[in-house]
histidine kinase
Amino acid sequence: MPPLGPALRARLGAYFAVDDEWERGNPAVTRRDVVTGAAFEVAGVVTLELARSAGAFDSVDAPWWVIYLVMSAAALALVLRRRYPLAVAVYLSAHMFVTGVAMPQVMGQVALQICYFMGLFSAMAWGRSRRSALLVTSTILVFMLCWVAWQFAVGQSAQTWLDTTGEDERFGFLPPVPAIILLTFIVNVVYFVGAIIGGQVAWRGARQREALTEQARTIARQTATLQQRAVVAERLRIARELHDVVGHHVSVIGVQAAGARRVLDQDPPAAAGALGVIEESSREAVAQMRSLLGTLRDIEARSDDDPGRLSRTSSPGATDIEELVTSRAYDGLRTSYAIVEDRPGAMARLPETVGLTLYRTAQEALANVVRHSTASSASVRVRVTEAGDRPFAEVEVLDDGRPRPATSSSGMGHLGIRERVASHRGEVEIGPRTTRGYRVRVRLPLGGPRD
């Protein structure tokens, strides 16, 4: 077992937080402090006057106004107990010693004892440094106990003299004078130790409140940061959505406009059909862009049921890919669509974000086929596997064309696909096939295995 001394010192050091660098601020003197000092002054004067009227100070040679001055000197010092706690504690201890020597009947009054208690309590509660507060209060405690011990020694000598002269009588196990001094010693130990421990409890309470306040500030900062990140993420999402919507519908409009121009004189019904597709696609593009821009204007709005969630527009999902593929079958481009599910209805159960990513991937890949490829056919396959240890959803777009001359791409479409896939920690393959054509494949994990 470790020695008791070091273990006890470690426990006391931990309780009094001697290694804690936190400093409790000493506030300026406020109305609260003035009211406290005035209250103690009034209570002290009243109790001293009652004691004087009861004859408690008959043996005191000092005038009555000196007694009141002594009381005022202690009570009014409490006005500074929070601003200068250690200085007030030392002053009140000296006040107690001098008054106890000169006028012990006055020093023993309840009002003054409360003032002395408050001085020692405030030193521990409001001392900026734990080491300084503990040093000052410990010094006061040792000094006062030595003073009481000296009184005990004097009392024992007085008892010996009384026993010798036979002028004293015993009423219990101890002689009267040492019994009184010993009782006083015990009362003073409880008094001073209680003031020190009470002050330390008050300090620890203030320390805990400060820690909780700092935690609240940290949580508020983190919440603000997360909200800002959510706003940025939502803006990036809207930017990708706008790119996909504009790219898809503008490519449709461009291809149909070119076809209508070529057959305008030879086949007016075909030109009218192409213009109808242009009209429908432009209306859909305008509607979707208005919806996205409305979300962008209200990006910081919160839904009523979930304040931490950004309001979002309804988005297409995996079940809309078939309609997307069908709409691309024009101007000589043949399209095909296939679904591979290990369980019936697996695609319909995909999470909304996963379905949107699959849809936007297929949309961007087909738009690039129309704009930048000579392909005559394109196929889209969606695979969903819910069983096994690694369930996934996958979309693959294949075409048989080559890059069309005199066309260029900004690369933003492929970047958007990669960003979407990265947000799901998925896999992406984009590039030419070894035989002929181009391939875009995206695989997204679906979390843990499903039953």
In short: The chain has two domains: 15-220, 317-451.
